[in-house]
Amino acid sequence: MRNLYQDKLESFYRENKRMPTYSEMMKLFSFKSKNAVARVVEKLIEAGMVAKDHLGRLVPTTAFAEDIGSVPMLGLVTAGLPATVEEELLDRVNLDDLLIEKKAQTYMLEVDGDSMIDAHIEKGDMVLVERANTAKDGQIVIAEVDGEFTMKYFRRSTMLTAGKVCEKVWLEPANKNYKPIYPEHSLNINAVLKAVIRKY
Questions:
Q1: Distance between alpha carbon 142 and the CA centroid of its chain, in Å?
Q2: pLDDT truncated to tens, each residue of the chain (200 aa)?
Q3: 50-52 and 58-60 strand pairing
Q4: Helices (H), the chain
Q5: What is the dihedral of CA 33, 38, 39, 45, to 10 degrees?
Q6: Contact 113/125 with Cβ under 8 angstroms?
Q7: How far apart are CA 86 and CA 183, in angstroms?
Q8: Lower CB density within 10 Å: C or N end of the chain?
Q9: Complete DSSP assignment for 91-129
C-alpha cells in the first residue's frame, strides 16, 4: 500500500494542501473505475491514514500528517519574561513546507569547522542549502574559491577606478580568528544557506 499509493497521495497533498477527490485519484493511480479507488480508500481508512468528514470527503488523519513530516504547533513560548502558557493544538506544521522552497535544488551538509560561529553555525550542525550560482551581498553561501569549497558570507562591492566601475567579491568568515578570503583565480557560488538545524 505504501509504495503503490501513499507516496502519490502525499505528493498530491503537499502540492494542493488537500486530499484528492475520487476522480482525481482515478488519474493519480491510473485506475479505470471509481470502484477501484473505493477499495484503496477503504484500505487507507482501515490503516488509519485517512478518514471521511461529514460530507464524505477524504481528510488526512494525524498519522498521515505525521508521515509526511509534520509536527504539531502547540502555541507560542516567550523568550522574554516567564509567562503562563496553555498547551493548545493550533495547527500542524509540515517541515518540508516550512524549510524547503525548491525540493529538487535543496540538499544538506554537515558543518565541519568554526569559522562561522558568530553566525551561530557550529561544528556538527546540519545546514539546508539551495543550489544557486548567484548570491546577494551578505548572504551565507557554499562557494568554490580557487578550487576549494567553503561556507562563508558572500561579499560584493563596487568602486569607481579610473572612470570605470569595478566589482570586487570575497568571502567573509564569522569568526575574528579567520581572515577574509579573496580569490586569486576564481570564486563560484554553489548554494545559498536556507536553514541551520541543530540537535540537542
A1: 16
A2: 445 688 788 888 878 878 899 999 999 999 989 999 999 899 888 888 888 887 788 888 877 766 666 555 556 556 655 666 565 655 667 777 778 888 778 889 999 999 999 999 999 999 999 999 999 999 999 999 998 999 999 999 987 777 787 889 999 999 999 999 999 999 999 999 999 999 88
A3: antiparallel
A4: 7-16, 22-29, 34-46, 62-67, 95-99
A5: 160
A6: no
A7: 54
A8: C
A9: EEEEHHHHH-S-GGGEEEEE--SSTTGGGT--TT-EEEE
Task: Catalogue all structural domains in the chain, each as residue range(s) with its CATH number.
Answer: 2-67 (1.10.10.10), 103-197 (2.10.109.10)
What gap in Å lies between CA 105 and CA 94, rounded to an integer?
A: 18
- Under a CB-based contact definition with an 8 Å cutoff, are residues 194 and 99 in contact? yes
Phi and psi at residue 48, in whole multiples of 5°?
80, 15
| Integer Cα distance of 130 and 104 in angstroms | 9
The rounded distance, in Å, linking the Cα atoms of 86 and 22 is: 40
Q: Give me the torsion for CA of 69, 71, 77, 79, rounded to 10°.
A: -20
Residue 107 CA to residue 114 CA, distance in Å, equals: 21
Return the bridge partners of 151, or none. Answer: 142
Q: How far apart are the first and last CA of the chain?
A: 35
